[in-house]
Structure formats: structure tokens, C-alpha cells
Design brief:
The chain is α+β, with helices and mostly antiparallel strands. The chain folds into 4 domains: 55 residues, DNA Methylphosphotriester Repair Domain, CATH 3.40.10.10; 108 residues, Homeodomain-like (Arc Repressor Mutant, subunit A, Orthogonal Bundle); 94 residues, DNA-3-methyladenine glycosylase AlkA, N-terminal domain (TATA-Binding Protein); 117 residues, Hypothetical protein, domain 2 (Endonuclease III, domain 1, Orthogonal Bundle). It contains 22 helices and 11 strands. It has a 5-stranded antiparallel beta sheet with strand order 5-9-8-7-6. A 4-stranded mixed beta sheet has the order 3-1-2-4. A two-stranded antiparallel sheet has the order 10-11. Helix 4 packs across helix 5, helix 6 packs across helix 8 and helix 14 packs antiparallel against helix 17. The longest helix is centred in the N-terminal third of the chain and has 19 residues. It is globular, with a radius of gyration of 23 Å.
Length: 492
């Protein structure tokens, strides 16, 4: 990663929180790398070098600072500067609990392993394995520090099936064994006896009330819930059910504004490793790794978006827990209101979703999988026969592998979606925007967008909307979100 040393130097000396996670300072004399906000005495400039990501610093032989904890830093926007293929590879690596071989990763991406190695060397200067090991060791440290999970369980949660291998990798990164770190740092208690608490940092500003309002209007009955706090918008809580690796569970997400992070309580039945995947899904759901300042500065060049941005500092793109779930919901929502689509999706969950008891005995449901919906006729949902057939076609195509949710490119995603009867460009772009968190997706035919871009009572056209949004690339999805927000009552 190419970094400007003068900017990095000024930021670390000022302990500027805006740069937290944007780069890391490695100290040659101590062999330690730190966040820009580290409270330790700043080293001399001649004794430091800078890295765009924690993985690069660790791969260069530096060990993470135990005081400022690089494991707790917000996600690095530097990853967003690499090639599209490398970004897709990183997302695929993070979506799986265990490490994939370079050959498996290359096959998923449709390229040769030799070319993938070349891309990582060119854009990151380190190998996929070095990235995986550094990120998993940092995650393991956070569990050692923030929970009382046994070391063997932490190894599994971090993606290691061998405790010996986990110890070797962890010691390489931290120069300490996991047991030594546990003794030195001391794991803290979980939120209660049945939950594990994860902390996920972000760079401010962060529009938590805006995100929660968006999710609340679309909360899926039985699966999701937003508990609002009228006196304190930042006090709202997001809850949802999940099933990962065969483990059913429930999570609660709270905002800790003073510490610039989310606190996530994870309740899960049985045994098995799900925490890493939960963390990555939450990061995408709440768009925690977005560089909101850069995005806002770019979009504010459009006078109409600039007005909305003044009302919505820290805009984030609301994501989805699962792309299949959201694609199905988008199909249900074609040409009807948000409220109607949410009601129908609730009926689908009530009819086909699995029921289980939450930690306090409340009944919750799990959104059905493609396998559970195979053969479903979708009768009784209140949809037309044509729409029911579209749902069946989509579920069948997913089961047959014709729909690829594994980080496809935007054009490819739209091609495979619109190839199915009954699915048009709006659905393809909207599911790319929300279900796959593609920042440049843009549903140009959306009625709200056309009204927002119109002149008085005259709506814009999709062609005009696309032309207007061309200047917003590569963040057209954020532009679409801001246009929807412009139609809502202004904040006082």
C-alpha cells in the first residue's frame, strides 16, 4: 500500500481518531506495530515505518501492540484500494471459518493460482495465507482479551482445527502463546452466562439512528426486531435470529457511541465455531468498514446529495445478513410497498421457517434455507401465481448453482439474476446493493429515486437517473440511499 509518510506522521503525533484503522505505525526499535491513536509515547520518525493494514505489518515481522490493540481497530479502508479480484478473494476468505488453499480460492474466483499469487504480491505485498493468519490471530487475541472462552475453543472459533497449529501461528504473530496472553491480559466476563460479547470498531461519523430506522421499517417478523429508545436514538437495539454451521442462535447489537464501536451479544445453541462468521456478517450488515468521510466528500459534489449529507453525517449502506434471504425478499417486494413486502416475507417465514426458543424462552424463527424451500409452492403468501413461479425459479436456480452469491462482479450478478423469468433490472441492482453490499449498484428504475431526481411533479427517467449517477461512481449505492432519505421528513 502506498502511504504518504507526512500525513501518517502528523496523524499519529496528533493521535487523530479519524485515521484509526487507515494505517499502522511499526516501530523498528521495538518490533511492535500500533494504531495511530496509541497512548504510548510516540517514537522518533526515523524509527518508524507505515503499513496500510495490520496483516502487512504482521507479515513484515512486527508484533501487535498489547496496549492499543490493533485487533480492535476499525476495518482498514486500504483493502478497498486493491483490485476487484483481490477484494473478492479477501471477502471469500473471510466468509469461511477455515482457511482455503490458494488453489481452492483461485478456482472460486475463476482464475489460476499463479495469477492470484501475482495479484496479492502486486497489490498487498503478502500472500493470501499471510493475510489469513494475521487476521485470525488478531481475532483470536480479541477473544482471549474480551471473553473467558477456553483457549481450545478460541482456536476453533478463529478457524484452526489443530490447537498446535493455532499456537504456532499465534506465537509467530504475537511472540507469545495464547495461554501467556490469557494470563497477562485476563479474559473478561461475557455479557451473561449464555452469551459471548464481540466488540466491533468503526471510524466516526456513524449514523446509527439512520441505520436502525432503515432496519426498523423492514424488520422481518419472527426473525428481526429493532427495540427503539425514544429519548436516546443511540440506545436502540437490533436483534435477529441466525443459523450458522448448524447452530441456531440469536444476536443483539448495541451502539457504544463513546467508544466508537458496536457491542454484539451472541447466543448460540450446541457446539461449533460461528463467532468469526458472525463478526464478518455484522461488519457488512452495518457497513462498519466504509470510509464515510471519503464517500461523503465525493457525493457532496452533487448539490442535491450535499443537502442530505448535512442531515445524515456518517451515512452507511444497510447490508443484509444473508444474500439468499435478501434476494428472496427483493423478489417479494417487486412493485409493492416496503410495508406490504415485509408482511408477505413474514408470512413466508411463518410458513416455512424453523422455530426455536431464544435464551429467555421467547419463540423466534430462522429464515428458511434454499434446501428447506426446495419444492415449496409458496401458496398462502398473498402473491400472484406469476410471482410464486418466480420464487420457485429462483430457489431452483440457487439450488442448481446457477445463482452465485460468492462475491460475483456487479455485471455478472445482474446477468444471472435477469436471466430468470420475472426478475428485472431493479431486483438485480437492489439485491446487489443490499444483499451483496456492492457500493456501485444503482437501481435506476426505482420509483423513489425517480421522484427524488425529478423536477416538481415530473419524475426523472431511468436513463436520466443513470446519467446523473455517473458522477457518483464508485459509490452510487450510497447516492441511492441518500435520495431515499431526501424523501423522508427532515431531522429537526
Amino acid at each position: 500500500m502506498q502511504l504518504d509518510p507526512s500525513i501518517c506522521s502528523s496523524a499519529r503525533l496528533a493521535r487523530d481518531k479519524r485515521f484509526d484503522g487507515r494505517f499502522f505505525t511499526a516501530v523498528k526499535t521495538t518490533g511492535i506495530f500500533c494504531r495511530p491513536i496509541c497512548p504510548a509515547r510516540p517514537p522518533l520518525e526515523r524509527n518508524v515505518e507505515y503499513f496500510g493494514t495490520a496483516a502487512e505489518a504482521a507479515a513484515a515481522g512486527y508484533r501487535p501492540c498489547l496496549r492499543c490493540r490493533p485487533d480492535a481497530a476499525p476495518g482498514s479502508p486500504a483493502w478497498g484500494l486493491v483490485s476487484t479480484t483481490v477484494q473478492r478473494a479477501l471477502n471469500l476468505m473471510r466468509a469461511e471459518r477455515e482457511a482455503m488453499s490458494i488453489e481452492q480460492l483461485a478456482e472460486r474466483l475463476g482464475i489460476t493460482s499463479r495469477y492470484l499469487r501475482k495479484l496479492f504480491a502486486e497489490h498487498l505485498g503478502i500472500s493470501p495465507l499471510q493475510v489469513w493468519q494475521a487476521e485470525r490471530a488478531l481475532f483470536a487475541f480479541s477473544l482471549l482479551r474480551d471473553t473467558r472462552l477456553p483457549v481450545a475453543e478460541i482456536a476453533l472459533e478463529a478457524g484452526f482445527n489443530s490447537l498446535r497449529r493455532f499456537n504456532d501461528v499465534f506465537k509467530t504473530v504475537y511472540r507469545r502463546t495464547p495461554s501467556e496472553v490469557r494470563r497477562e491480559q485476563g479474559g473478561t466476563a461475557n455479557s451473561d452466562g449464555s452469551a459471548t460479547r464481540l466488540y466491533l470498531g468503526y471510524r466516526p461519523p456513524f449514523d446509527w439512528p439512520g441505520l436502525l430506522a432503515f432496519f426498523a421499517a423492514r424488520a422481518l417478523p419472527g426473525v428481526e426486531q429493532v427495540l427503539a429508545e425514544e429519548k436516546d436514538p443511540d440506545g436502540a437495539v437490533y436483534l435477529r435470529s441466525f443459523c450458522l454451521a448448524g447452530r441456531r442462535g440469536l444476536l443483539e447489537v448495541r451502539h457504544q457511541a463513546d467508544k466508537k464501536r458496536l457491542a454484539v451479544d451472541v447466543y448460540a445453541e450446541g457446539s461449533g465455531a460461528v463467532l468469526y462468521q458472525v463478526r464478518e456478517k455484522i461488519r457488512r450488515l452495518f457497513d462498519l468498514d466504509a470510509d464515510s468521510e471519503e464517500i461523503s466528500a465525493h457525493l457532496a459534489r452533487d448539490p442535491q446529495l450535499e443537502v442530505v449529507l448535512r442531515q445524515s453525517a456518517g451515512v452507511r449502506l444497510p447490508g443484509a445478513w444473508d444474500p439468499f434471504e435478501y434476494a428472496l425478499r427483493a423478489i417479494l417486494g417487486q412493485q409493492i410497498s416496503v410495508a406490504a413486502a415485509t408482511t408477505i416475507a413474514g408470512r413466508l417465514v411463518a410458513q416455512y421457517g424453523e422455530v426455536f426458543a431464544g435464551p429467555d424462552g421467547q419463540e423466534v424463527r430462522i429464515f428458511p434455507t434454499p434446501e428447506q424451500l426446495a419444492g415449496a409452492d409458496f401458496s398462502g403468501l398473498g402473491v400472484t401465481r406469476t410471482r410464486a413461479q418466480t420464487l420457485r425459479n429462483f430457489v431452483a436456480a440457487t439450488g442448481a448453482g446457477e445463482i452465485d452469491f460468492r462475491e460475483p462482479e456487479l455485471a455478472r450478478w445482474c446477468e444471472q439474476m435477469t436471466a430468470l423469468p420475472g426478475i428485472g433490472g431493479w431486483t438485480a441492482q437492489y439485491t446487489a446493493m443490499r444483499g451483496l453490499s456492492m457500493p456501485d449498484a444503482f437501481p435506476a428504475s426505482d420509483l423513489g429515486i425517480l421522484i427524488a431526481l425529478g423536477d416538481g411533479d415530473k419524475k426523472s427517467t431511468p436513463k436520466q437517473a443513470l446519467a446523473r449517477a455517473e458522477a457518483w461512481r464508485p459509490w452510487r449505492a450510497y447516492g441511492a440511499l441518500l435520495l431515499w432519505q431526501s424523501l423522508q421528513p427532515r431531522k429537526s
